Amino acid sequence: MKKRKGDSMHTRITLSIVSILFISVLFSCNSTKYIAEGEKLYTGGEVDLKLDTAINPQRKLAFEEHLESLLLPKPNKKALGVPWKLIFWNMGGGYDSSQNLVRNFLKKQGEAPVLLSDVNREYNENLLRNRMENIGFFNASVSSDTIIKGKYASVLYTAIPRKIYRINSLSYSMDSLSAIGRDILSVKEGSLLKKGANYNLDVIISERERIDNLLKNKGYYYFNPDNLLVEVDSTIGNHKVDMYVTIKPETTKQAKQPQRIGNIYVYPNYTLGSQGYTRRSSRNMDLFNNGIYFLDPQNTFRKKVLANHIFFEKGELYNRHDHNQTINHLVNLNTFKFVKNNFENSPDSANTLDVYYYLTPLPKKSLRFEILGKTATVYNGSEANVTWTLRNAFKGAETVTLNVFGGYETQTGGKVNLNSAYYRYGAEVAITWPRLLSPYKWAPSKRFIPKTYLKLGYEFLNRRTAYVLNSSTLNYGYMWKENDQKQHDLTLAEIIYVQPRNISADYQAQMDTVPTLKRIVDPQFSFGPNYTYTFTNSMDQNLKHTFYFKGGINLSGNVLGLIQGASYKKDETRTLFGTVYSQFVRVEGDFRHYMKLGKDAQLASRLMIGTSYSYGNSYSLPYLKQYYSGGPNGLRAFRARAVGPGSSAPENIGADNFFADQTGDYKLELNTEYRSKLAGFLHWAAFVDAGNVWLQRPDVNKPGGQFSKDFITELAVGGGAGLRFDFDFLIIRTDFAMPFRIPYLPKGDRWVFKDIDIRSSKWRRDNLIFNLAIGYPF
């Protein structure tokens, strides 16, 4: 009997699962292959906390996991329960020292077995006891026992913390008549050591660093945290301690004196020699301004530009803020390969530091070549990029880049002409200035370098069986960061010009039947400013809840359209340079929330809202500015640009037809995804996506596409699960998704759970979507 396609896939999946289980069992048996008689393979240590009082189970588990992370040695690394590195080592012949190339290669990829005899239980007991004492459990005790199962062994550590010690009082033993004593006493109100808090060595260390950091900003360059002593008296009883903060008597006199800034010497074209950073002759030094000297006889850089990024001033007290800010600015100019600075005692004044900056430039010119491969369900292609970079182009740390690109994409499956057979080429030239080029004195933040950019681009795209598009773009604007969390991007002028050519007879015939296809090849001309604001605190790993927000507004033709009296309603559209221009206001926002659910689990959610208002010269947004939904980073159960608008059904599905992209003037999308780690680099996720796009005004060719009060009933919904291969430097994502709700079906039939039939090859072909992507979707 002939097998159906679906049966074949089901068989392959079953065989794959059986194969994985078989290999896992085989590897597990092989893991002890070279273990000598009497030895045991060490599988790890476990900590069992015995507490006198009740505690939240999650806190107890977290404390146990923290203690377990301290144990040495670490067992062999595992993935899906299999010690895969040990397997490679075994396949390489284990302890065999032969010169077989294949075996030696396999052995280098693996690791030798970690044995029970490698474990020093007494050392680990002391390690755990010391850690508990460091957080206030002064009377803690630890015992251990070995658990043996065949050729495997683990160690169980039983830890009894007993009662914790708390801070009873905090005193600062300082000489209030000395400058450093007064400065330390002036910052004691912000102490991290609080009365009633647990004794914690980590907090004591942090408090010393806090005081040192504050002193550094008051000029105490030679002071360091080790000069502070926190004495603890635990003999007062009732499980309490008194603390005394003082300066160690052996602290040098120089460390107790604030330092001032002397002369500043800058070597902007420094070549690092074999002897390391050494001071060069200052005979040719040029005094620029206020004690800043430059040694740059070839005038490689404009002195004023570099001086603007040096925040020290001669005669001021040394402070760490200006120190770090100067280094950050010089590094982020993206002009220097190495940035090094030294402080040396001035020969002319006591308690004065001369500052030396050694700046080693990056190569003036560089060339980079990239080739990319692209693949999806029904098409494949590649793209090549050549980027030429010119640094310090105008002696002010400017960067000029020229990118030339070309690529092709061809359809390799499916019965619908997806407009995906094309070739494209083009170029973009960009200039970036590390400052704001503005007639007004505007400095949003001294901590970060603002940038001015100018970009000019051209692209030629030939969809061989459909049309040709010539696209030109120009962007001029500013980027700046307000702080670590907030970034702004103001494009003063964004010009987009798209001109179609060579529309094929086949495409023209279908375009006359399906007017939506005409939108793709309409001439497009938009110009105006846009602004984007980004906020994120997701880099803070200590927060349970973190957020990301990106919002923007895009304008086009607003002022000119009003001046010219443009009105599509009166059939009085206006042109600029002979082309009808777009007139609209477009606003969008992307809000994300991340919630930690444990050490290796997270719930990630996203809300995307896009709205617009087209008027005057425009009936709706131009095609390049319209919203769409679907695809590997949106509604993963639907093909990209295949959802909506509203309850409108997709057009032109069928053999030899061009697919009309489904786009709109409004967008709503909601996503939520549970992410968790399986083992090692292997993670998994389960997700649900919902969303759609809508039109601002009715379209006879898109019935049900206009936004209305019933928009919630027109949401497309899908979900699925997938694996993520997180290699730190690269994340490969695979998702399998299926639709739960299809908006263009009749109202009572839009939820399609009843139609799910995994065993049907036709259902899988029509509904099961596989996405392969790089990185997380949000």
From TrEMBL:
Coarse class of the protein's main subcellular location: membrane
Keywords: Cell outer membrane, Membrane, Signal, Transmembrane
One Pfam family linked to the record: Omp85
Compartments in which it is found: Membrane
Bacterial surface antigen (D15) domain segment(s): 404-741
Protein name per its UniProtKB record: BamA/TamA family outer membrane protein
Protein species of origin: Sphingobacterium faecale
Lineage, uppermost ranks: Bacteria, Pseudomonadati, Bacteroidota, Sphingobacteriia, Sphingobacteriales
